[in-house]
Amino acid sequence: MNVSILQNGAQEKQFGSTSTKYYPCAIHDGEDDLDSLADIVASQSTISKAECYGVIMALTKTIGESLANRRI
Question: Contact, 5 vs 22, CB < 8 A?
Answer without folding.
Answer: yes
